[in-house]
Each structure stands twice: as structure tokens, then as C-alpha cells.
Amino acid sequence: MPKERPLWRGAAFRLCLLSAALLLCLQLGMRRSWCPEEKSREPAAARAPAPSRGAEQRPAGVAVAVAVAGGGRRRVTYVRSGRRGSAAPACCAPQPPDSRRRKTVRWHIELQPWASPTPSLNYEASRFLKYISTTQISCGHMNLNSLKGYSETAKKPWSICLDERFSLIHRIRNKQCRLYSLGLGNDDNQFELSMANSGCEVHRFDPSIKSAHIQEGRHLWYHRLSIDWRDPNPAIAAHKLHSNTKKLGTVMNEFGHQKIDVLKADVESAEWKILENLILEDVVEQIGQLVFEVHIHWPGFEVSGNDSTVVRYWYSLLRELELKDFKLFHTYKDLSKPQVFLKKEAFNASSCYTLSWVNTRWK
Ligand SMILES: *[C@@H]1O[C@H](CO)[C@@H](O)[C@H](O)[C@H]1NC(C)=O
Ligand SMILES: *[C@@H]1O[C@H](CO)[C@@H](O)[C@H](O)[C@H]1NC(C)=O
Question: Measured from the CA of 335, which atom of ligand 2 is nearest?
């Protein structure tokens, strides 16, 4: 049957073509799977510090790849896209191993209504300052030393809630607790040491240390990493062998940590965007207590708008925490720092407050 050969050949040829096309598709798909995320597509120029904020000292360790983007771009809110992220193609969403992470993906936080019918800094400031000075839940035991029979000393900025109704104290007793501490190397680490001495696993993120990881004692680790509100652009990360800037959720995934009992952060004005990232990606639900130093002498990295807009944004962020059942149990106004609010001496405010929340939903 001489006629059958070409027919068979034709089919084989078509099959070949089909599988070649399939292979090509697969390859393209794979390549795309690590394509830059939305935010990193911004041109490098947009990342240069805006002149108005240029004078602000930028801590060497915090948010290395991050700077204040110019003009209107600063308002762009970044979030890693997940399944429901419509703006980024599905191929670009790195799938976190932890599926709980995917349930809500939002691009920006819900802004609260203005404090007054017409926006005014006076009203915004007084609402905000009142909010951060008022505890929402009382906590009877806030000092590790008091557990060992020492008397409670003067009001301390870094306070955790050790009341029996919250799990932290039980987890400390069972030596199951974990502290993440974000900050710069020159901070005093009394708090970290006392947590480590109580048997907690302490991870201190400090980009200034010499090696990638250092263990000190049985419970204290240093990691050469700084926590950011976005992962670095892969194009940049590929050139730099050691990219040491990561989102908290990414670090937790990499370390295989589902929970953090306490997150302490003293990140020199990066706290607002980091907090926003934790809320938007629902990472905050994996955290038992937050102890944050907040800075209000300027808007903070990548926070833009006029003064009333900035204060309303800060307030809205903290309200989102409250909605997630984080209750403020301790607030500390740092009188040793300049008494400055958005570059002005006003409202009897300090430039710096330390706030502690307990996640009342957390087990
Ligand atoms: C600040 O900006 C907002 C939004 O752009 C505007 O509605 C508001 O009137 C401004 N507030 C002041 C006090 O200038
Ligand atoms: C200003 O703040 C200090 C310290 O918090 C407080 O003692 C003082 O009463 C405040 N002054 C006014 C006028 O509110």
C-alpha cells in the first residue's frame, strides 16, 4: 500500500510539531514564573529618594532596595499577587507552601473616613495621638523579670503581655516560643537576651553582621537579613549574590516557621510599610504579639500625601490591626527623643512611640 506512507508521515510530522509547540509553551511558562513582580517593574529612577525626604537619615540596614519613590508613585501599594490578584498574570504568583496565606490578597488598606467633615491636620492628629495613647485591653504582667520574682521596674518600652489568658506565657513555660526581632545592630538587645534566657527561640535580623547566620548560645540566632515590604527585583537579586532584603512572610516560609509569638520591630520609619505588608498578606495572623516602635516625625518610607493624608493613613493601618483583633495593651511615649510631629513641634507629641498589641484570636 504505497499510498499509506505519506499519510502516516504527515501524522507523525503533525505530532512532532504539536509536541514542539507544547515544549515551547512549557518553557515560556517556566520562565515567566519568576518574572518580576508588579512593583519591581518600576524604573530605577522612580526609586531614587525624593528631594524633600532626602535629608532624612536612612538607616543603613533598613530597606536596602527601597527608597522613597518620587511624586505620585509613592502611593503605589505593593502586594505579592496570589490566586486572586487580577493585575498580575497567574504565572507570576509564587505559590507559598502555606496555603492559608492565599485567602485574601489586597492591594491597599481600607482608609478610614476623615476625622472631620473637611480634612484638617488638627483633627487627624488628635484622633491619631489619642488612639496610640489609649490601651484597648489591660494586661497585668508585662515583664519577664516579674516572673522570676524581681519587682517590676519603671515603664519599659518593650513590653509583652504575659497574662495567663494569652498563650505567650504558656509557650514560654513550654519553651515553645519564638521571637523575631527586626532592627539595627547598634540597638541594645536586652529584650532579646532576656527572651532567649527564658528559653525562647530568638531570631534577630541584622544586615550588618559578618556571616549569613550566627548562633549565640542555645537560643539566639543572628541573620544577615533586613526585612522589607517587598521581595527584591529578581533582576537585581541575580547580580547581587547575596540579596539580603526579604519580606517577613518569605523569611518565615524559608525558615519553615508557621508562627511567631512575638514580633519586635525598631526599623526607623520602615514600620508603616512593613506593617501594611503584613496586613495585606495576612502574615499578621501568624503573629501572637507585636511590639513596634513607630516614628511620626516624618511620613516614613514610601508614604506620601499632605500631612492630613499621612496621619489618616497611619490611623487606618492601626485600625486594620484592631479589626484583626489585635488589641493595644501598652503604649510608651518616648520623651528622650525629639518632640516632633511631622517635622513640627506640635500637639505635644513625641517623634517616637513604642506600641504593644496582643492578637486576641491567636492560639
Ligand atoms: C490633603 O489631601 C487630601 C487628598 O488629596 C485633600 O482631600 C485634603 O483637602 C488635603 N488636606 C489639606 C489640609 O490640605
Ligand atoms: C504633654 O505630654 C506630657 C508627657 O506625656 C504630659 O505629661 C503633659 O501633661 C502633656 N501636656 C499637655 C498640655 O497635654
Answer: 4
